[in-house]
Amino acid sequence: MDRHGAQLWVLLGGLLVGPPAVACPDCPTARVVRTSVLGDDFWTYLVTAVVPFLLIGALSALLYRIGLPPREVATPRDGEEPGART
Hints:
Structural class: mainly alpha
Shape: flat
Low-confidence stretches: none
Largest sheet: none
Number of helices: 3
Number of strands: 0
Strand content: under 5%
Order of helices and strands: HHH
């Protein structure tokens, strides 16, 4: 895609997304939504959503930090074929 085609897509995307983003923040519907989202239980919901990611991240970092010992890979001895048994 050439540069002008990309600019056209960006312009069209901006025109589609722009008007809803500039909507009135003080209209009655916005006030109702804001009070329902940022109500009394906001911090409870936020902690409930964030804590699992923090725990998984901390556990992953701990396991990465501890590391696992390298596994011993069975390699054929010199002069032997991989499928041959003695």
